[in-house]
Amino acid sequence: NAGVTQTPKFRVLKTGQSMTLLCAQDMNHEYMYWYRQDPGMGLRLIHYSVGEGTTAKGEVPDGYNVSRLKKQNFLLGLESAAPSQTSVYFCASSYLGSPYEQYFGPGTRLTVT
Amino acid sequence: RKEVEQDPGPFNVPEGATVAFNCTYSNSASQSFFWYRQDCRKEPKLLMSVYSSGNEDGRFTAQLNRASQYISLLIRDSKLSDSATYLCVVNPDMDTGRRALTFGSGTRLQVQP
After folding, report:
1. A25, A63, A103, B58: most buried, per Cβ within 10 A?
2. Given A31, A43, A90, which is nearest B99 (Cβ)?
3. What's the sign of the alpha-carbon dihedral A4, A35, B47, A102?
4. In chain A, whose CA is at the least distance from the CA of B48?
């Protein structure tokens, strides 16, 4: 039981490049989330999903897209990376019956130069 | 004004000490409250929920004051392993179905031998 895994762990991009971050969970959770964490800001919600095939915007969605084609996977895409997207990205998931007990992945450290 | 505010610290305390953190939230309609713990360069993990009547889990006690809109966390008999950042977390969206959380930026605790 791996819990929540994220790929890759680290990445350096140049401005304008694109990439996809992959989140996978093996706990059969309905809800999945993408957050970013910046110094002094706390975690901020980018996008979330309440089930397979559904996604919605969070607090800071601009510059990101997401997809949830399978229940266990939640992908975060950066279409044209900007230095302001340098951050640590965390994926999380939770049960329908206990939505606030969120299980986090280990994070992806992204630097955009 | 931030939705959830915390003193960033650091709080430097000796082993065995009692330490308390407070957190204030701005949305008076918030219904659910939590403390998460985050070790350095790791993912956040749920420490405990905060109930209206207060709750205790071993050396940890959490309390909620709705009238003043603050949440507290008390740690007794501090251990070196308690060194971490403690995140105050609020769910402000009971009616939207989003099941997302709003995180404070955290209070850093350093327990010294």
Report:
1. A25
2. A31
3. negative
4. A101
